[in-house]
Design a protein that fits this description.
This protein has a single domain (about 1-220), classed as 4-Layer Sandwich (Metallo-beta-lactamase, Chain A). The chain has six helices and 16 strands. The chain has helices at about 50-55, 55-65, 70-80, 150-155, 170-180, 200-210, and strands spanning about 1-5, 10-15, 20, 45, 70, 85-90, 95, 100-105, 110-115, 115-120, 125-130, 135-140, 155-165, 185-190, 215, 225. Strand 12, helix 4 (about 150-155) and strand 13 form a beta-alpha-beta unit. Helix 4 (about 150-155) runs parallel beside helix 5 (about 170-180). The longest helix has 11 residues, at about 170-180.
Length: about 230
């Protein structure tokens, strides 16, 4: 499994010729180095509907003729925009060609911009993505919550991507505890330094992770991690 970081909360995950992108906020993202027209994937996966996660979903899904996998209400919204969409819900999952997706809970909010209005986008979620026998956990936007212990007990998580920005998600202190509860050996920090109010030092966070026996991977945009 190869995980490439494209800034904020966007990750591209690949294995054996199959690739998916999670939360493709590329256009307007000051910390990315890729154009959405260059993205070639088999699916788009969304954790929730906020603009800094929904991003270029519709363009990418159309140009690849691939499905958008999302919580049910958000999938319906995408379907109305003319793309293939597969609606799941929290605790549910599905096997696809070359990968498996299961949604976990996340404590946040979720709505999607539609012109001058906001549309309810169902519950936010985290994503357990399994490819090639390895599981990657993308927590989406979330607060720390106790059932992260259960997620860690029930799954062998090779790598977790956790928000550290604070203000809108959990910050570094809570993310350190989340990493312990998830029983993962690697963490990619997400959702920091993109805009005012979520400034954090990912290197310092990863140094503190190392003291707990977890490898922190503060990837720069375009950098990859192979599991």
């Amino acid at each position: 499994m190869k995980i490439t970081y494209y800034g904020h909360s966007c990750t591209l995950v690949e294995h054996d010729g199959i690739s998916v992108i999670i939360d493709p906020f590329l256009s307007g993202n000051p910390h990315t180095n890729v154009d959405p027209s260059d993205i070639k994937v088999n699916a788009v996966i969304l954790t929730h509907g906020h603009d800094d996660h929904f991003g270029d979903t519709i363009q990418i899904a159309k140009q690849n003729d691939c499905p958008v996998i999302a919580v049910y209400e958000l999938a319906v919204f995408c379907g109305k925009k003319g793309v293939k969409a597969d609606g799941l819900n929290i605790g549910g999952g599905r096997k696809y060609d070359g990968f498996e997706v299961k949604y976990t809970q996340a404590f946040h909010s979720s709505s999607v911009s539609d012109g001058d209005s906001w549309v309810y986008a169902g519950q936010p979620g985290g994503v357990l993505l399994t490819m090639g026998g390895k599981t990657f956990y993308h927590a989406g936007d979330t607060a720390l919550f106790g059932d992260m212990r259960l997620i860690g007990e029930m799954n062998s998580i090779a790598c977790a991507a956790l928000p550290i920005g604070g203000a809108l998600t959990m910050g570094p202190e809570d993310a350190l505890l989340a990493a312990q509860w998830l029983r993962t050996s690697r963490v990619i920090p997400l959702h920091y330094n993109t805009f005012p109010g979520i400034e954090q030092d990912p290197e310092a966070f990863c140094d503190r992770l190392k003291q707990t026996g977890v490898d922190g991977c503060p990837l720069t945009p375009g950098e990859s991690l192979e599991l």
